[in-house]
Amino acid sequence: MSLRSKLILSFVGVIVLGGILTMIFGSRLVRSTIIDEAQKKVEHDLSSAWMVFNNKLDEIGNIVRFNAERESIRDLIVVQNYDVLHRYLNRVRLQRELDILTLTDSTGRVIVRTRNPEAVGDDQSQDEIVEKALDGGNYASPTIVSREELLKEGQDLADQAYMEFVPTPKASLRPEDEEVNGMMLKAASAVVDEQGNLLGVLYGGILINRTSEIVDRVKELVFKDETYKGREIGTATIFQHDLRISTNVKNQKGERALGTRVSKEVDAAVLESGQAWIDRAFVVNDWYITAYEPIKNINDEIIGILYVGMLERPYIDTTRRVIFGFAIIAVLCVLTLLTILYFSTTQTINPLQKMVVATQKIAQGDLTHKLDVRTKDEIGALAQSFNRMTDELRLANQKLIEWGKTLEKKVEERTEEIKTIQSHLIQQEKLASLGKLAAGIAHEINNPLGGILIYSHLLLEDSPEKSPQYDNLKKIVKETTRCKDIVKGLLQFARPKDPEMILTDIHEILEDSLSMMERHVLFQNIHLKKDYSPDLPKIVADSAQLQQVFLNIILNAAEAMDGNGTIEIKTSLDVDRSHIYVDITDTGHGIKEENKSRLFEPFFSTKEVGKGTGLGLAISYGIIQKHQGTIKVASQENKGSTFTIILPVRRDFEHGESS
User: Domains in the chain, please, with CATH?
Assistant: First the structure.
């Protein structure tokens, strides 16, 4: 696939992905905006519905209160002229279109029932609204009226309240299948004389079940009877509990959906939890944008729901039209961008194709090829960088060839370093193994060797000097003593004594060592040269053990020169003052190359047989290791050797001394 195709496809992918994401988020934004606005409108419409509902309740309350305050009513109650009271109150009920208008005495017993004159004498003092009015005042509230009470007012009211449940999708389950009670907007006012004495209570109301005055007034006032595709957009409903008793929501037959019930979700939120429901909901047979709030009686108990809702379909269709318009615009933008992209990529691809040709030539070894791209944009800058890269690559190739020539030499040097490290590790392993072996041998032969030496001395003392055995016994004593010295050296090598670390002056140890050696026969013709550092700090060490090391190395140096030459002793401190260096240099015959790696091996010696045990340097090496130091050797055959002892400086002791 060509670069042009890849660029176009990548841009198409980005554009399409961006378009899809824009459509997704845009559609959600548009949908949420439109639906949110619709939801806010419905919430406002619910407030209007409450206004209509409460106005009707206030109207009933005003009618009852006005008549309860009439002087003629009080007078007729006092004289107990119930026939005139009935005719007057019944006329008021019919004129004001009330379903009931009833008068009780001061105890709550019915004395006039306008709708059913024969049904009097029953006690209404337990009625929740009448009960409050008996204490004085005016009260109005929605309430649930039982079928028994409705029958007292008339069979027609009981029949109006009766309603069978209609199966409703998404409604909650209920054990009942019918409703016999009714919901009434009811008001009651106390009737009192001029002295404020209670004469009775006048109460009246209208039964909401199967009526449409309130819900149609809400639809007319709020939704203006708007329709969408032949369907009314706005609806209102009054629920008795979860049952539609007054509604303009239509069922599939186009009739008012009386007897249907509210959905399970709304039931749980409004009737059970007492919360408002402001959301979309399934209403009878379609989705609506809805608002529900509980209807409460005078005791603040939930007895029903007031609902308003708008058909969701118009808003969904509006959202789809807006999104479809966005999609058309997006497609046109994509096509326009692709056209622009095709022509713009041509100006980019042509210089890149030249670069491809140039890279192929460079790959074939032609490092002199140059790009001829003279644009002043990023491509031109890339071409100049490419040409500079070619020049630098040619120079780097030359350097690489030169570096390759020196690589072999560096490898050889590194190999020598590795061999030195390996030799040191082998030396350590040998010393550890020989130490264990030496300890075992010394332990096994020390006791019998002591016995031989004792008995040899006894025999030597008992033998005359001129006897033949005397010389032989003398040789036995000499060689046995030598063996004992070897065993002593073995034990010292295998089980070295832990150093007693104290603050020590290295120069004092060197001077003590030299004073012990100056009378030795080997030092009669040796020139001693000293070069001590003046600012050498004291170190923490075992002076006796360090003296043993210095004596051993100085004696070896004297023997290497056969008692004739120069020994130079030099002390110094490294740059960071962390280590002391003691260099002991001789002008002897030096050390052969093949013997350097074995210098510190136990029992290795270049001296004649009988003149050394081969343990001196091994023991010295162990002592210096115990002091966390090291010994280095530099030697040239027939020119002499230098033994360098390196010891650490303990800063804590140094600071303690200075304080």
Answer: 37-326 (3.30.450.20), 400-495 (1.10.287), 497-658 (3.30.565.10)
